[in-house]
Write a structure and sequence with these properties.
With 391 residues, the chain is α/β, with parallel strands linked by helices. It has two domains: 210 residues, Rossmann fold (3-Layer(aba) Sandwich), CATH 3.40.50.2000; 159 residues, 3-Layer(aba) Sandwich (Rossmann fold). The strands form two sheets. The protein has an eight-stranded mixed β-sheet, sandwiched between helices. A six-stranded parallel β-sheet has the order 11-10-9-12-13-14, with helices on both faces. It is globular and about 65 Å long.
Length: 391
């Protein structure tokens, strides 16, 4: 099968975290004897055709170098609201549509289907390309929030979804939201996660009293709530430390908050690390904190459980799909720092929490392995070929 993968986030170099889960899926598909070609935005001075792990990547130039920065930084949805950002977002959608049309109509490429990650910009680009090649759209979360806040986006998004030959979402939460917002049958939406980088348990434990969180430092991740909770916890457990792994637009504000709370000596901001190093970092954790709200899936929390680390998460978004209420995890009210602090303390004091997390993690590793996810998508692709549209 010859698959065209369209995304606005894809690794720019080996080890880059941007769209790493999509690349893992694509690599697994190639191992199953499929051919995958990727269309993704350029970035600064990076554009044109290159290759990553023998996968051809067409990086679309959509703006002069100084403006070619609206992708890869987790802020595309807000950048598009500003005049300059809107111009370059529209340019990206148009340029990707041209690239899609060129590849799908070029006889030598022989594209069988197009897999669009996020309905915008990739899904919209595919819709506008007016190709006859079947396509499917996967919703990851940010694109669903765009639907929620804009009637215009819902009108456009529904047209993209209705014309698609299949629609997937990475969690039940997102599938429910897409069905409601786009007015399509819930039964027409497949729930299929993206693959994890963690495929074995890191058995060695050196965690002591370390709490870890991993993710892009944006407001949605609610790291400021975690800092408040950690401050409360430190009054009762002065031996505990916190590692915040990741980078993003909120980092400076969060470091300032930690200093203001007087906990800066117990809080480590490590910055971004490579995906393959996540398991090593998690092996040092006693508990994983995931206070984010409205997450489409929350892969970092799932990976913590897969490494045998108990998890405290907000009762929000997709977290209830895989984080237990008791035993290996706790679910707390979103934005409730006191409840988060109490739940963290409970798991720190539970001598059996690790073994319970390992049991939950074993099932998740099987479900989220790259091979398993690729096999499931292969079945969806086979169903797409020759299938009618969603409605």
């Amino acid at each position: 099968m010859n698959i065209l993968s369209v995304t606005h986030s894809y690794p720019r170099w080996r080890g880059d975290m941007a769209g790493a889960f999509i690349h893992r899926l694509n690599v697994a598909l190639t191992r199953r004897s499929h051919r995958v070609t990727v269309i993704a935005p350029g970035d600064k001075d990076l554009w044109g055709r290159d290759s990553l792990d023998e996968i051809d990547v067409h990086r679309v130039k959509y703006a002069p170098e100084r403006w070619q920065q609206i992708a890869y930084r987790g802020t595309m949805d807000t950048a598009a609201l500003r005049p300059a950002g809107a111009v370059w977002t529209i340019s990206l959608i148009a340029r990707q549509a041209l690239a899609i049309r060129e590849l799908c109509t070029r006889g030598s490429e022989g594209i069988d289907l197009v897999h669009c990650h996020w309905w915008v910009p990739g899904g919209l680009s595919t819709f506008l390309s007016q190709i006859r090649t079947p396509y499917l759209v996967t919703h990851h979360g940010t694109d669903v929030r765009i639907l929620e806040r804009s009637a215009v986006a819902r009108k456009i998004g529904r047209r993209v979804v209705v014309k698609a030959n299949a629609v997937t979402a990475v969690s039940n939460y997102l599938a429910d939201r897409v069905a409601s917002l786009c007015q399509v049958p819930r039964s027409a939406i497949h729930v299929q996660t993206m693959p994890s980088a963690i495929e074995s348990v890191a058995r060695a434990r050196t965690h002591g009293g370390r709490i870890i969180t991993v993710g892009r430092l944006t407001k949605q991740k609610r790291i400021h709530v975690l800092l408040d909770a950690f401050h409360m916890l430190r009054d009762r457990r002065p031996d505990v430390c916190l590692s915040i792994i990741g980078d993003g637009p909120e980092r400076v504000a969060l470091q300032t908050q930690a200093t203001g709370l007087g906990i800066e000596n117990s809080v480590e901001f490590t910055g971004q690390i490579e995906p393959n190093d996540v398991a090593t970092a998690l092996s040092e954790a006693a508990v994983f904190a995931f206070p984010a709200v409205d997450e489409g899936f929350g892969l970092a929390a799932a990976e913590a459980l897969m490494t045998g680390v108990p998890v405290v998460a907000s009762r929000s978004g997709a977290s209830p799909d895989f984080v237990p209420e008791q035993g290996a995890g706790r679910l707390v009210t979103p934005d409730d720092a006191a409840a988060l602090a109490l739940a963290l303390e409970e798991l720190l004091d539970d001598a059996d929490a690790d073994s319970k997390a390992e049991a939950v993690g074993e099932e998740l590793r099987a479900r989220l392995s790259a091979e398993s996810v690729a096999e499931n998508y292969e079945r969806i692709y086979e169903g797409v070929l020759g299938k009618s549209r969603v409605t």
